[in-house]
TrEMBL record:
GO molecular function terms noted in the UniProt entry: L-methionine-(R)-S-oxide reductase activity
SUPFAM superfamilies: GAF domain-like
Matching PANTHER family: FREE METHIONINE-R-SULFOXIDE REDUCTASE, GAF/PUTATIVE CYTOSKELETAL PROTEIN
Domain GAF: 19-143
InterPro entries named in the record: GAF (IPR003018), GAF-like_dom_sf (IPR029016), Phosphatase_reg/MetRdx (IPR051330)
Pfam families tied to this protein: GAF_2
Protein name, as recorded: GAF domain-containing protein
Similarity comment: family membership: Belongs to the free Met sulfoxide reductase family.
GO CC annotation, single: cytosol
Amino acid sequence: MSLEKLKPQIETIVANSEKTVDERLLAICELLEKHVEYYNWVGFYFRNGTKEELHLGPYVGAPTDHTVIPFGKGICGQVAVSNQNFVVPDVAAQDNYIACSITVKSEIVVPIFVNGENIGQIDIDSNTIDPFTEKDERFLEFVNKKIAEILY
């Protein structure tokens, strides 16, 4: 399914106020993992209050030991500091990469902003080398803007 066709489904999930925020975030993870062939692990990390660390939120995919990530460490930790999207076409070529699974070949991380503040991010791993394009970045920015509406 094309990324554009997923947008109305994202909006429907976000608008469902009968579900908790975490339930809606998990539903988004499930939707993306199911309908985008190269999205093999989809999850959210959020800043832990005022601490300079990220905590794992809802996710779909293989279990991970990385439930807390210090700012600056790994791709997610770097995005927490840079406030910029980070696309890694080949994780084997990345020095500051935290391996979650030997099957992961690439990663994309896009920050979530609420009132101009980076409060977390969506993190997607792929078992395919270099699948992410600018379309993925723009789509995930759209997803995060919708999610920001129900956070805090």
